[in-house]
Write a structure and sequence with these properties.
338 residues, Glutaredoxin, Cytochrome Bc1 Complex, Chain D, domain 2, 3 domains, 14 helices, 11% strand, globular
Length: 338
């Protein structure tokens, strides 16, 4: 009966992790282990101490270890993974996750998916939002965010430990888990994990897959959808990758990624066909400076303004003809995929 209570307690603490648990969880488990007697090395210790230690080790191994089996392709050190991505010129596949039911479901789906094969083309790295490892003002952190987002502060009563504080907010990043959580919220605009994100080796976003938006699907359907999503990104590694990066950085905040449905601005699918009665340079001019095209009285610029006013499209005056072509090629390609 004592063994059953011990196992139940360890199982309660460990939960159903599909990953290495945070350090605080290991510490909780350690506190529940049978303790060494205060003194003496006589028969009592030899009779009970070693057997209890063996029971504890076996119990933890049987209960916890099978739950930690994960695809070996996942790295847990972002800095090391980024270095490898640059060396091998491969995109990073990030998994933002924590101890939560949805995260555990996605872990289970990924274990049964095509992730091992796709890892040949990506550098997969798991980022634990509940990682309690002190970050201590790591200099690599600010580059994850827009310039000027963070400021370095030194914390009192922490033996000189430093941290990054979010400017204009009462938010201080002390642990790596807090860094990953803020990164997910501030850069990828997602509040709840799990989240899959693809980055170039230069840390430019390529695409993201938010599990929370697909929970109405079965596990099998989500697995197939993630496989298709990742395989689709492989196609983008060639001619369409730069176009997608341009769309993500310049257009995705206002225009739907599926190119079919409106968002803050109109759907972009078929935009070349809509402008086909005019030189493509007219479309380029409109993208670079839409307000000037409206002022000049271009019929399609005026029609777009009349339909979407008072929303004003952002100007991109510095974008080259070559980049605009790649952007429009990607929009056409993505529209056809959908």
């Amino acid at each position: 009966m004592q063994t059953e209570n011990f196992e139940s307690k360890i199982r309660r603490i460990a939960g159903t992790f599909d990953r290495r648990p945070p350090q605080t969880t290991w510490e909780q488990i350690q506190r529940e282990l049978p303790q060494k007697p205060d003194s003496g090395t006589g028969p009592g210790l030899l009779r009970w101490g070693l057997p209890l230690a063996l029971v504890a080790a076996v119990a933890i191994g049987l209960i916890i270890w099978p739950q930690f089996e994960t695809p070996q392709v996942w790295m847990d050190d972002y800095i090391l993974a980024l270095r490898q991505a640059k060396a091998e010129n491969k995109p990073l596949l990030l998994l933002f996750t924590r101890t939560c039911p949805d995260c555990e479901k996605l872990d289970d789906i990924l274990e049964r998916s095509n992730i091992d094969e796709l890892a040949e083309s990506y550098i997969p790295v798991r980022l634990l939002l509940d990682d309690q490892t002190p970050m201590d003002g790591a200099p690599a952190v600010p580059q994850l965010f827009p310039k000027g987002t963070l400021e370095l502060v030194h914390l009192p009563d922490t033996h000189g430990q430093s941290a990054w504080r979010v400017k204009g907010q009462e938010r201080t990043l002390l642990t790596w888990g807090q860094v990953w959580e803020f990164w997910m919220e501030a850069v990828f605009f997602t509040q709840r994990p799990p989240l899959l994100v693809l980055l170039t080796p230069q840390e430019e976003p390529i695409a993201q897959y938010n599990y929370i938006e697909h929970t109405e699907l079965s596990a099998r359907e989500i697995g197939k959808e993630i496989d298709r999503w990742l395989a689709l990104q492989l196609d983008l590694k060639g001619e369409h990758l730069e176009g997608k990066m341009l769309f993500t950085s310049l257009c995705a905040s206002c225009h739907n990624r599926n190119m079919k449905d409106p968002l803050t601005g109109p759907a972009l699918g078929g935009i070349r066909e809509k402008w086909s009665d005019y030189p493509e340079s007219d479309l380029y001019d409109f993208i670079r400076d839409p307000q000037q095209s409206i002022y000049d009285g271009h019929p399609l610029a005026l029609a777009t303004w009349n339909e979407w006013k008072p929303t004003v499209m952002t100007s991109f005056s510095d974008i080259s003809d070559g980049s605009l072509k790649k952007l429009l090629d990607y929009i056409d390609w993505q529209y056809e995929q959908n």
